[in-house]
Amino acid sequence: MAQAQQNWAFQLSKAALELTEDEVIYDPSYFRIPYPNGDVPADRGVCTDVVIRAYRKLGVDLQKLVHEDMLANFKHYPQNWQLKAPDSNIDHRRVPNLMKFFSRKGQTLSLSKSPKDYKAGDIVCWDLGNGILHIGLVVDRLSADGNPMIVHNIGSGQVLADCLFQFRIIGHYRYPPKT
């Protein structure tokens, strides 16, 4: 990993860890939010909001980036919600859409069972079963077992957890901004 990318990854990891200090209730409700730089209420959120908020702390607006890419490439995005056009209130808050965006605009990395393949700043997606997908950020902390730790929200707020290999990994991405 190049030095600039390592610096970015460390900053993203730090931003994600800072999110764990905020009290957040898991709330998957649809919210009408401003565009660009919109966010659901600060005390609410889901797994995608962890990723969105960590990037936003570093000046990257995933709401705007995902929305613009969906406007230009709607047919390439999942059509799971029978929408006729992008919706800037919710599209960036859906795991399948983030997976598509990161695969289109970032780096798609291997799905591995080896802890050494997951670096701080990486984005990981899981299939929890029954059609439920999940997303989190790898941070620069290791568990007692040597696994990279994850900041995510799986129902208990924005937390740091040793959960990388707890579920079936279906996506592994790196998305540093273009410089």
Structure, described:
Helix 1 (3-19) packs across helix 2. A hairpin with a 2-residue loop joins strand 4 and strand 5 (132-142). This protein has a six-stranded antiparallel sheet. Strands 1-2 form a two-stranded parallel ribbon. It has 179 residues and is an alpha+beta fold. The protein has a single domain (3-174), classed as Alpha-Beta Complex (endopeptidase fold (from Nostoc punctiforme)), CATH 3.90.1720.10. It has helices at 3-19, 47-57, 62-73, 95-105; strands spanning 25-26, 44-45, 107-108, 123-129, 132-142, 148-152, 159-161, 168-174. The longest helix is centred in the first third of the chain and has 17 residues, at 3-19. 28% of the residues lie in helices and 22% in strands.
Short description, anyone?
The radius of gyration is 15 Å and the shape is globular. The chain is α+β, with helices and mostly antiparallel strands and 179 residues long.
Fraction in helix: 25-40%
Q: Indicate the proportion of strand residues.
A: 15-25%
Structural class, from helix and strand content? alpha+beta
Span of the ends, CA to CA:
15 Å
* Count of individual domains: 1
Number of helices: 4
**Got a strand count?**
8
- CATH homology group: endopeptidase domain like (from Nostoc punctiforme)
CATH architecture: Alpha-Beta Complex
CATH topology: endopeptidase fold (from Nostoc punctiforme)
The ordered H/E elements are HEEHHHEEEEEE
Shape: globular
User: If you compute it from the alpha carbons, what radius of gyration comes out, rounded to the nearest whole angstrom?
Assistant: 15 Å
The parts where pLDDT drops under 50 for at least 5 residues are none
Largest sheet: 6 strands, antiparallel
CATH class: Alpha Beta
Average pLDDT, to the nearest integer? Answer: 96
Output the strand order for the largest sheet: 3-8-4-5-6-7
